[in-house]
Amino acid sequence: MADKDKKVKKKKAPKEEAPAEEAAAPAAPAGERQSSRGSRKAKRTGSNVFSMFSQKQVAEFKEAFQLMDHDKDGIIGKNDLRATFDSLGRLATEKELDDMVSEASGPINFTQLLTLFANRMSGGSDDDDVVINAFKTFDTEGKIDSERLRHALMTWGDKFSADEVDEAYDQMEIDDKGFIDTQKLITMLTASAEDEEGGEAA
């Protein structure tokens, strides 16, 4: 009897001819069904994050995901993370595990894990304190030597070109001795995201 009710509900939803109903049916249980039609649908919906990586990278992430998913339920949870750290010989605190799990907007399935990696790679998840600490390493008595910073930007990490540094420096206040006010720079960098979201918040 319960099965009949389920079938009736599925048929009521599309209210169109049979071919449309067939197309809509696999979309609903795409996560549960392993049909080729369902998996094609899943790939299409997650294509944005998948297109950011090469097939080789996706395969490597998939392998890593499977190693981390100790209970093999398709979701990386707190216990999976704890087991992963244990296998590496490192004890993780409850807070560290909670922080890692809370980075994701939902349960950490494979697509969610790829999204987290993509955000990290694009620099999208830099917290304000990371930005502040980075620039404070160049700070001397409230000022940053612009030439020293230029050298660092063009030498280490994701290297800036001379044009990119010039473009960034156009946005900053640099005094006649070539120094940047550290606090003004930090305020400019950390307030920009809020300004974009809330119009002219500053």
How many beta-strand segments? 3
Gyration radius, rounded: 25 Å
**What class do helices, strands and sheet pairing give?**
mainly alpha
Number of helices: 12
Short description:
Residues 21-30 have a biased composition (Low complexity). The protein has 202 residues and is mostly helical. It has helices at 2-12, 18-27, 36-45, 47-50, 55-68, 78-87, 94-102, 110-121, 128-136, 146-155, 162-170, 182-197; strands spanning 139-140, 143-145, 179-181.
Report what the structure shows.
It is a single chain. With 202 residues, the chain is mostly helical. Among the domains are: 71 residues, Recoverin, domain 1 (Orthogonal Bundle); 62 residues, Orthogonal Bundle (Recoverin, domain 1), CATH 1.10.238.10. Helices cover 61% and strands 4% of the residues. Strands 1-2-3 form a three-stranded antiparallel sheet. Helix 9 runs antiparallel to helix 12.
Task: Record the SSE blueprint.
Elements: H1 2-12, H2 18-27, H3 36-45, H4 47-50, H5 55-68, H6 78-87, H7 94-102, H8 110-121, H9 128-136, E1 139-140, E2 143-145, H10 146-155, H11 162-170, E3 179-181, H12 182-197
Antiparallel strand pairs: 1-2, 2-3
Helix pairs in contact: 9-12
Biased composition (Low complexity): 21-30
Pfam family, one: EF-hand_6
Domain EF-hand: 56-91, 160-195
